[in-house]
Write a structure and sequence with these properties.
Number of domains: 1
Radius of gyration: 18 Å
Strand order of the largest sheet: 5-4-1-6-10-7-11
Structural class: alpha/beta
CATH architecture: Alpha-Beta Complex
CATH superfamily: Spore Coat Polysaccharide Biosynthesis Protein SpsA, Chain A
Shape: globular
Helix content: 25-40%
Order of helices and strands: EEEHEHEHEHEEEEHHEH
Number of helices: 7
Length: 239
């Protein structure tokens, strides 16, 4: 039997920095919500077998309506998220408990609606050799290490050794379940992403890097709305 590929779309953001007054994944650009643009990327990818959406409890109905209206038949479940990003991933892992450990899992932010098909394909391929994959792009600006108390520069590391992480992050399901189990047993560790959890709980596990794209923008600041809208319109004119 072929190894299954499942996409988990994290759609629990509230978008307070955008000042919209409602969750940013429901903002409409080019006639569709951000959530629709993102889910459709996985819906149309021939290697993705199933999609799981993790949403805020109070937006579950709206999310379900969008899925139904768009005809996203790969969406198998819409789950409730949690306060932290890790809670949302854990919700997905619990729902996928009975899936084989070799299942390929791609975890993506709903607020990144410009993900290229090639990045998904490259993540899936990388999982043939690695159990964990991070999508990243080289840092273009000089990075400075700052003492946040005194607001003073401590060090200026070599830029060529630093990358900016994006999503999706991809894993063999069994590996991520193991990492989260250890994470729950450990005190005083913090991680901002799933690769961070793997790095801290399974330090001997190698994490591959797949090249991302400068256009794989995450909707965070008001300027991102403008950039994403321009890029979406340019794509629609080219297709």
């Amino acid at each position: 039997m072929m190894t299954q590929c499942i996409a988990v779309v994290l759609a629990g953001g509230v978008g307070t920095r955008l000042g919209l007054g409602y969750p940013k994944q429901f903002f409409k650009i080019a006639g569709k919500t951000i959530l629709e643009h993102t889910v459709s990327i996985f819906q149309q990818h021939e290697q993705i077998d199933e999609i799981v959406i993790v949403a805020e409890k109070n937006t579950h109905t709206q999310t379900q309506e969008i899925v139904n209206q768009a005809g996203f038949n790969k969406v198998s479940n819409i789950l409730f998220g949690g306060k932290e990003r890790t809670d949302s991933t854990l919700s997905a892992l619990c729902a996928l408990e009975n899936k084989p450990d070799d299942t390929k899992l791609l975890i993506h932010d709903a607020a990144r609606p410009l993900l290229a098909k090639e990045i998904i394909s490259n993540c899936i391929t990388a999982l043939d050799k690695y159990n964990a994959v991070n999508v990243a792009i080289p840092a273009t600006d000089t990075i400075v290490h700052v003492d946040n108390i005194n607001k003073e520069v401590i060090a200026i590391p070599s830029r060529k050794e630093y990358y900016q992480t994006q999503t999706p992050q991809a894993f063999r399901l069994g590996l991520l379940k193991k990492a989260y189990k250890r994470y729950a047993e450990m005190d005083n560790i913090q991680a901002t992403c799933d690769c961070g959890i793997v790095l801290k709980t399974l330090p001997d596990e190698k994490i591959a890097v797949v090249e991302g794209s400068p256009t794989n923008i995450k909707l965070t600041q008001p300027i991102d709305l403008f950039l994403i809208e321009q890029l979406l319109h340019s794509r629609s004119h080219c297709s």
